[in-house]
Design goal:
about 300 residues; alpha/beta; Rossmann fold; 5-stranded parallel beta sheet; 13 helices
Length: about 300
């Protein structure tokens, strides 16, 4: 068995700010993790902060916006948690102390299907319209679109061409963008360069990147590697699991056949590789804290 070093796998020790920055990927169970952090804030005596709901949520920021965000986070009272849908920000670039980065990933095909139906859910538009009354209502034809037909008909919304860049509000086809960063080199879909940048960011900057499908392992690793904030997280989850698993659950999402999923997988090769990379790292972190001490060097 490969020798595991718990200290080397622990990026929490490299942080210079007692602030957890959860730059959450959409549709990876982040609402559940956000609720856990709300409850942990009371238990473990830290402050909870999240970005306000925005009319247009931009995940890639210009350099001056990145600096502004980094300054806001650096000015938070310690200890605190800050949560926002946004790509990874390099605090060192702005001569600011580095926070404790965490995030969560999900099987990329399941995630893109979840996003497709999430933005079409009736309650999603009711909430958005209540917050921003001037938002136009979506086209009925777009609302009725189903994922399988979208893929099989070659609809542009469900064509995932290699190397294509989608500009505008944000690119929710993939999760590696949230780790790669704000540079243009991170934007081509399923590219080698974006994949390698995202991997390097996870290994060098993130204390923990959890995996939705490995929730118990994720909670255990968070408790071990970021104990100031996550001590007691498994107990809180175990006592509230029935409620927490229903948060933001979309009952309007129909099943998608494996045949259609396989079609999509062909163009998600590097997204799948990134997901497996994060999963392997999480398991290494778990093993490093559970193996006999003599095997951890």
């Amino acid at each position: 068995m490969q020798t595991l070093n718990a200290k080397e796998l622990n990026n929490t020790r490299k942080s210079h700010l007692e602030v957890v920055f959860f730059n959450r990927v959409p549709k990876v169970g982040s609402q559940t993790f956000m609720e856990l952090l709300r409850r942990l804030a009371e238990r473990n005596d830290f402050q909870f902060h999240r970005d306000a709901v925005q009319k247009v949520e931009t995940i890639r920021l210009a350099e001056d916006q990145q600096q502004e965000l980094a300054e806001v986070i650096s000015d938070l009272p310690e200890p605190s948690v800050f949560i926002k849908h946004v790509c990874h920000v390099n605090f060192t670039k702005f001569n600011l102390p580095t926070p404790i980065y965490i995030n969560v990933v999900r099987d990329p095909i399941e995630r893109v299907i979840s996003w497709f139906y999430y933005v079409r859910a009736p309650w999603y538009f009711v909430e958005r319209k209540a917050a921003f009354p001037d938002l136009p209502l979506p086209n009925p034809g777009w609302l009725k679109k189903d994922f399988e037909s979208c893929v099989l008909s070659g609809d542009q919304e469900c064509v995932y061409n290699q190397g294509v860049t989608v500009e505008g509000i944000g690119d929710h086809r993939r999760q590696s963008l949230f780790f790669c960063g704000h540079d243009y080199e991170c934007t081509p879909f399923n590219s080698v360069g974006a994949l390698e940048r995202a991997k390097h960011s996870v290994e060098s900057q993130y204390s923990v990147v959890g995996v939705l499908e490995d929730l118990n392992t994720t909670l255990s690793v968070l408790e071990k590697y970021v104990p100031r904030f996550f001590q007691g997280v498994r107990e809180i989850y175990d006592t509230s699991a029935q409620y927490l698993t229903k948060i933001n659950k979309n009952n309007f999402k129909p099943p998608v056949s494996e045949e259609v999923k396989d079609i999509v997988r062909r163009n998600f090769t590097r997204e799948i590789e990134f997901y497996q990379f994060c999963r392997q790292r999480l398991h290494k972190q778990y093993l490093a804290t559970h193996l006999p001490l003599k095997t951890i060097v």
